[in-house]
Amino acid sequence: MTTPTQDDVLGYFDTLSNWGRWGDDDELGTLNLITDDVRLAAARAVRHGRSVSCAWEVAAPDDMERSTTTCPRAADMPGAEGMPAAFHADRRWGFSNERLGIMFHGNTVTHLDSPCHLFWDGRMYNGRSHSMVDAATGSAWAAVTAAANGIITRGVLLDITREPGQGVFPEDLEEAERRQGVRVRSGDAVLLRTEHGRARDGTLTQAGWHASCLPWLRERGVALIGADTPQDVQPSGYDDVLMPVHAVGLVAMGLWLLDNCDLEACAATAAELGQWDFQLAVAPVRFAGTSGSPVNPIATF
Asked: Which pLDDT tens digit goes with each residue over 115-154?
């Protein structure tokens, strides 16, 4: 196992770049790899008719874990904020209603990152300037609405237990393929279970993808990755690229990310059925100009 140097990882911004690959006006990035044929093949992965959620429940404010690692003000922002439901007990007809505010980026809520979520040297995916993101109107480029038609593809769960601070390397991915009898192919979504979803120890330490996996993901033609953590192993081992999977993936590759998945039911179902691939459906909310969306990914076996 050869660990890439920081210069190697910085070089990934060029060697793994998908800028212009699908045209100068492309905002979909790696989602272009999910062709009609890939979606049809994903439908054939449904062999038992059983569906499971891959998302955490969004709890009430008092019970909601709060992330302090990604956003400086996240400690002051509940993951979900709700007004009391209304009900008229003196009428035969009643109703309930809520007003919700969600801070979904961070380490708590299961969410989708679109390519405009990160910048590098002032640029977003496909070379667009960060100035296309405005605090009042949101992003005019590669926002989550680029995936308004949903993400329907074949999902592959790779079950690779790691302790917080331990990374997953390409050799680990291929060993898991052999052990589970599955192979990642073009257009797939790859979900990584480290067994440490929502692990909290008061530090920035977490298990996840190592930067060395990025060339492997591009070579295999992976359209989407997810994990039961916020993707990147932390610490990353690189002083100048604190979250290389996010930075290189989103900016250079246009690789969409599913952060903070709950993969326990998915892994248990896969082990029970002896089937580690499935149809994965991800439907982001069409929030105009946003850099992502809370989602409830559904795996159907």
From this structure: 999 999 999 999 999 999 999 999 999 999 999 999 999 9
φ and ψ of 287, to 5 deg: -80, 115
Both structure tokens of 187: 């257009």
Query: Is-contact 125 19, C-beta < 8 A?
Result: yes
Give me the half-sphere count of Cα atoms (radius 13 Å) on the Cβ side of residue 50.
13
Give the mean model confidence (pLDDT) for residues 43-66: 83
Q: Which of 88-102, 224-238, 281-295 has the lowest mean pLDDT?
A: 88-102
H or E segment and range at residue 6 = helix 6-15
What is the Rg, in whole angstroms, of the alpha carbon atoms belonging to the chain? 19
Between CA 210 and CA 166 the distance in angstroms is 9
Domain boundaries along the sequence of the chain: 6-56+110-300, 58-107
Sequence letter at residue 277: D
In this predicted structure, the answer to whether residue 60 has a pLDDT above a threshold of 90 is: no
State the fold for domain 6-56+110-300. Answer: Glucose Oxidase; domain 1 (3.50.30)
